[in-house]
Amino acid sequence: MIIALWILNGLLALAFIMAGSMKAARPKTSLVAAGMGWADDFADPTVKLIGIAEVVGGIGLILPLLTGIAPILTPIAATALAVVMIGAIAVHIRRRENATPSIVLAALSIASAVLGFVVVL
């Protein structure tokens, strides 16, 4: 089960760190121009905060498990990322946009949390 957790968390971490870095580094106008219309509904600091939360969550999926220091933080990070993705789903549905990527990431984050709690506890 630990191998499945590592594979899942590795893929999730990659996705969240890349997406979060883009949101944290690029200006809101650039994100909107790139097709992320949802960013127009939020203040620039809020978009940056969402990006930072995704980067920290992505790191939290890997680092505690890798170091063995407080590995319980890994499934907690997955749970927090699932909450972020549930918020993203709500925003996309409200804007009548495609919510499929957010739904997939939420489901994978929930799977990671469940698997992480089983492995760690």
UniProtKB/TrEMBL annotation:
The keyword Transmembrane applies. Its main location: membrane. InterPro entries: DoxX. The chain crosses the membrane at residues 6-25, 72-91, 103-120. Keywords: Membrane, Transmembrane, Transmembrane helix. This is DoxX-like protein. It is a multi-pass membrane protein. It comes from Microbacterium kyungheense.
